[in-house]
Request: fold
Amino acid sequence: MQIEKLNENKIRIILNLEDLKEKNIDLHSFMSSSIESQDLFYDMLDAAEREIGFKTKDYKLMIEALAIPEGKFVLTITRFLPEKEQIKKLKVKRKNVNLGNNLSIYMFNGFDDYLEFCNYIQKYLNNDTYAKLNKTSLYQYNSKYYLCVNMDNISLDIFKCIHCSIVEFATHITNSDLFERKLIEYGKVIFKTNAISECIKAFL
Reply:
């Protein structure tokens, strides 16, 4: 897989059949937007962020795919901010940046890990901070468990406290907005709302 930066908001990714085989994806699955091909796409976005600093969180993406000779595929990915986000960006000088509408997703390797986290929250997090964790949902996907936390109207200090607590038990997922759509479409809902408090009531 080759990743090239075309400009500040556009990259080109070149794949070959060997890249597909490494992910156990055949040509039909790749061209039909299967779950496996979507997993590969998220892996490519992660690689682009690591290798050339191409971040896609909070951006809309336009993807152009082209098959070329010798079994290669060219994906051109362009990122751009939604119009509402562009308007907000112009207002930054007039008001403080708000963490509202921020979504964070965390991956737990198993349900036992999630139970340990909930037990920790119940015992050690103060009531005021714990009360902020009401906008949460839990999904199961590919034998992993994903906690979606809406950080709407949460201050930076509380955000840091919550984040540091969760990453003791789970891994933070990049590109949360894109990944949430994947969970909604392909994942199994365990707790639709109040995922932490409902888990504590049911199991602890």
